[in-house]
Amino acid sequence: MKKWFGMKNDTNTTNQPGDAAPLNPADAEGSAESLGGVGEGVANAADQRIAELEAQLAEANSRALRVMADFQNYQRRSLQNEAQAKAFGVAGVVERIITVLDHFDMAINQDASKASAEQIIAGVRVIREELLKVLQQHGVTLVNPAPNDEFTPGSHEAIMQQSADGVEPGRIVQTFQPGYAMNYSGVERMIRPAKVVVAPNA
Predict the structure, then answer these.
(1) In CATH, what number is assigned to the domain containing residue 175?
(2) How far is the C-alpha of 142 from the C-alpha of 175, rounded, in Å?
(3) Less Cβ crowding at N or C end of the chain, within 10 Å?
(4) pLDDT value at position 5?
(5) From CA 152, how far away is CA 146, in angstroms rounded?
(6) Is residue 96 domain-shared with residue 78, that is, in the same domain?
(7) The predicted structure's pLDDT at residue 37
(8) Contact, 173 vs 151, CB < 8 A?
(9) Using alpha carbons only, what angle is made at residue 193 by residues 166 and 168, rounded to the nearest 5 degrees?
(10) Residue 120, SS3?
(11) 53 and 112: one domain?
(12) How far is CA 194 from the centre of its chain?
């Protein structure tokens, strides 16, 4: 058979530059396996990280519960200690006042036919002084201003105005009823202001 000029044999053709190389099935399978291995590694790392975070969260929750329980126990102990301190404080005052009451009982049980009015009054004064000492031991002070003392709002309460010889205007003329103040742990508090008579301002 004659070969025409310019024609090429199909069986001897070769790949020219730029032609795509044939795909090797073995190479394609290996690439897929490589990609699958990378994805599996990423998933394992994510699972491990999630497990670590869950463990940290559980530990944080446990620690928060312990802190809350400790705080509640602290509050309960504080309330108990405060109640005990108040009870001991009241008991200390009562213990000292009981002695004063004993002296009142002794005065009341005196034979009126053998005691004069002056003796009874003197006994009451002694009991009063003893009671004041008990109060002073617990930070209570007597507010009993003298005539011509300066009038101090808060510590004194003016119930009326009245002129008096030797008393400057705006100053105290007379104490109608003494007051009481208290200093407890460095905190001062006026329990009752003294009721006083004040000289009018000029």
Answers:
(1) 2.30.22.10
(2) 12
(3) N
(4) 44
(5) 12
(6) yes
(7) 62
(8) no
(9) 15
(10) helix
(11) yes
(12) 35
8-state DSSP, 115: S
**Distance set, CA 153 to CA 63, 117, 150, 195 (Å):** 55, 38, 10, 11
10-residue block means of pLDDT along the chain (202 residues)? 45 49 52 60 85 92 93 92 85 86 86 82 89 89 95 95 92 96 87 96 77
Whether residues 57 and 133 fall in one domain: yes
Residue with tokens 């002084």: 129
| Cβ atoms within 10 Å of 143's Cβ, excluding its own | 19
Residue with tokens 């730029």: 18
**Would you say the C-alpha torsion 73, 78, 81, 82 has a positive or negative sign?**
negative
The Cα 96–Cα 140 span in angstroms is: 14
pLDDT at residue 70, as a whole number: 93
Same domain, 143 and 87: no
Residues 6+ apart with CB under 8 A from 92: 138
**Of 138, 164, 186, at which residue does a domain stop?**
138
Residue pair 192/180 in contact by the 8 Å Cβ criterion: yes
Q: In this structure, are residues 125 and 104 in contact, taking their beta carbons and an 8 Å threshold?
A: no
Strand order in the sheet with 194-198: 156-161, 194-198, 172-177
The answer to pTM > 0.90 is: no
